[in-house]
Amino acid sequence: MLFWPALLIALLCTALVVLSPPGIEPHRLYLVAAGLGGWAIAILTFWFSLRTHATCWEDGLRLRFPFYEVRIPYRDIQSTRLGQLGRQFPPECEPWSRRHFLEPLFASTVVVVEVSALPAPRHQLHLWMSRYLLSPDTPGFMLPVRDWLTFRAELDEFRSRSYYR
Fold first, then answer.
1. Nearest alpha-carbon partner for 5 in 67, 91, 97
2. Contact 129, 48 (CB under 8 A)
3. What is the rounded CA–CA span in Å between residue 111 and residue 10?
4. How confident is the model over 38-62, as pLDDT tens digits?
5. 20 conformational bin, left if phi > 0, alpha if psi -120 to 50, beta if neither
6. Which of 119, 155, 123, 158 shows the shortest CA–CA distance to 139?
7. What is the helix (H) or strand (E) element at residue 102, kind and residue range?
8. Do the strands 53-56 and 61-65 form a parallel or antiparallel pair, or are they unpaired?
9. N or C, fewer C-beta in 10 Å, the chain?
10. Backbone phi, psi, residue 71, to 5°
């Protein structure tokens, strides 16, 4: 949600500082500060998006976030199912600002991983991940993955293999 607005602010401020139109000189310091802040936010959000992923390992499912990692043993996974973000979080119940940014995602398919218990208290998980990644009605995670069919098949295969050990 922050990448495109930050990039737009960074590009606009950079263009104004470089082109230096008449009358902009008194505001140059503010433009430099806003441009540096915009570039920092854009770069960090891009880097964070590269570091965030869900992976199936031999010992369990790993959810990696920029500063936090959740490991879920396969024995703790109750079920997996497909869901839709807009059904779990109805758009009409969201504030306008969030609804506007999430509009393209409301129709997307997510893999809902229901667990017997969350690996940490819900309020602690909210510090590290978006509220839209935690299932609102059951203990579990809602994972928006690009290829949900392959991911769910891989997750189910790893779960079934772990039962035979």
1. 97
2. no
3. 35
4. 999 999 989 888 878 888 888 899 9
5. left
6. 119
7. helix 96-102
8. antiparallel
9. C
10. -110, 125
Interhelix angle 3-19/28-51, nearest 10 degrees:
150
- Residue linked to tokens 């880097």: 47
- For residue 55, the cross-strand partners are 62
Half-sphere exposure at residue 156, Cβ-oriented, CA atoms within 13 angstroms: 12
Residue 7 pLDDT > 90, yes or no? yes
> Residue 145 class from Cβ within 10 Å (0-12 exposed, 13-18 middle, 19+ buried)?
middle
Calpha distance 81→114 (Å, rounded): 8
Give the distance from CA 3 to its chain's centroid: 12
CB 48 within 8 A of CB 66: yes
Point out which residues pair with 64 in neighbouring strands. 53, 69
Contact status, residue 65 vs residue 129, Cβ threshold 8 Å: yes
d(CA 69, CA 28): 41
CA distances (Å), origin 85, targets 56, 66, 135: 22, 22, 10
